[in-house]
Amino acid sequence: MASSMKAIQVKSAGGVEVLEYVTTERPKITGPTDVLIKNHFMGVNFIDIYHRTGIYKLSLPAIIGREGAGIVESVGEDVKDIQPGDHVAYLCPSYAEFTIASKYVVKLPDGLDLKLAAASVLQGLTSLLLVTQSYEVKKGDWILIHAAAGGCGLLLVQLVKNCGAHAIGTVSNDEKAKLALSAGAEHIINYTTQNVVEEVMRITDNNGVHAIFDGVGKDTFEISLACARRLGSLVSFGNASGTVPPFSILRLSEKNLKLMRPTLYNYLATKEEFKKYSTELFTMIKEGKLNIKIWKTYKLSDVKQAHLDLEGRKTSGKLLLQP
Question: Which domain of life is it from (predicted)?
Answer without folding.
Answer: Eukaryota
